[in-house]
Amino acid sequence: MTAAREDGRTHATVLVVDNDPEICRVLARRLSDAGYFCVTAASGAQALAEWHRHTFDVVVTDLNMPGGDGIALADALQRSEQVPIVFITGFREDFKRRIRSISDAIVLEKPFEGSKLVELVDAILLERATRTG
Q1: Structural domain spans, the chain
Q2: Rounded to two decimals, what is the model's pTM?
Q3: pLDDT tens digits for the chain (133 residues)?
Q4: Which CATH superfamily, name and number, covers 13-123?
């Protein structure tokens, strides 16, 4: 469970996965600036290793990555626990059919403003808190 802050946000932990180190850094920075604790990973394999070390409230992952796409990562993660997943991509149509098999999946199409990602994570966590609280 995540602790509520005065501004209504939570001290949630977000796993940010992207093979592009600059995108990963920018996304994590934007979420960190909004009060979230972020852990980054450059690949699906690294993300799975982080998953076993930490507890995450939300996963933000690129869809199209070498060595395994975001959907394969989501499949692996959701075998152990249901977690909301935000897929970021410029190739939604290429993955549309496969995305439907992922529960709690949301697609954020590139390009997008960093504030949109923060708003989305805020909304996901608020909805989860309302459902479980």
Answers
A1: 13-123
A2: 0.86
A3: 343 444 445 579 999 999 999 999 999 999 999 999 999 999 999 999 999 999 999 999 998 888 778 888 998 888 877 889 999 987 666 666 777 777 667 888 888 898 999 999 999 999 888 876 6
A4: Response regulator (3.40.50.2300)
- Non-local (6+) Cβ contacts of 30 within 8 A are 114, 115, 117, 118
